[in-house]
Amino acid sequence: MKIRETSLPGVLVLTPGIYRDNRGAFWETWNQQRIADAGLPAAWVQDNFSVSKKNVVRGIHYQVIQPQAKLVRATQGALLDVAVDLRRSSPRFGRHVAIELSAETGEMLYIPVGFGHGFLALTDVVGLAYKVTDYYCPAGERTLLWNDPDLAIPWPIPAARAILSDKDSEGATLATAEVFA
Fold first, then answer.
1. Which of 62, 130, 135, 136 is catalytic?
2. N or C: which end of the chain has fewer CB within 10 A?
3. Cα–Cα distance between 93 and 159 in angstroms, integer?
4. Is 7 within 8 Å of 83 (Cβ atoms)?
5. Could you confirm whether 117 is annotated as catalytic?
6. pLDDT in tens for each of the 181 residues of the chain?
């Protein structure tokens, strides 16, 4: 497995070794020892899975109570995955990184505690699997407005075509959001 830094320190892209032949492909999606050797959390408490159709935007979500690190990967299709630094004390507060993840490449995005997470489904069907380091806490969940101009995320879709939940369309702006210290 190869691990590379993104423009936001701590947000990492993990690329598995993929073995392809005339039958298809094989790769490890999780190896606790390799993750621990890389210095990443190896104690994940919950696995989540979502299916989205093209143009669905989910997020930008985070928890201020029971904050979670996430390890995200596409199991079907392709998505634009976004992490936003929400640590007010960080010199990169409010900055984001956007990475295309696909089932074909098997790449994963590690998002540490203190970051918001969202994505856009780029293909007709997107399966997204992710591990988290703490349990879901409805009282601690927060949503940042996905297209807040202060974030300057270059979503490759006009807002009018984005398919959103009510919660995601009514997210807080960075200027008004409850964030991390």
1. 130
2. C
3. 24
4. no
5. no
6. 899 999 999 999 999 889 999 999 898 888 888 888 888 887 899 999 999 999 999 999 999 999 999 999 999 999 999 999 999 999 999 999 999 999 999 999 999 999 999 999 999 999 999 999 999 999 999 999 999 999 999 999 999 999 999 999 999 999 999 999 9
In CATH terms, the fold of domain 2-169 is Jelly Rolls (2.60.120)
Is 73 in contact with 128 (CB distance < 8 Å)?
yes
- In order of 45, 87, 118, 170, the CA distances from 101 in angstroms are 23, 24, 12, 26
Say if residues 82 and 168 touch (Cβ distance below 8 Å): no
For residues 162 and 74, give the distance between their C-alpha atoms in angstroms, rounded to a whole number: 19
Straight-line distance from the first to the last Cα atom of the chain, in angstroms, rounded to the nearest whole number: 33
User: What's the one-letter identity of residue 163?
Assistant: I
- The whole-model pTM stands at 0.94
Residue 77 CA to residue 84 CA, distance in Å, equals 23
Q: How far apart are CA 56 and CA 177, in angstroms?
A: 22
- 61 in catalytic set: yes
Percent helix / strand / coil, the chain, rounded to 5: 10, 45, 50
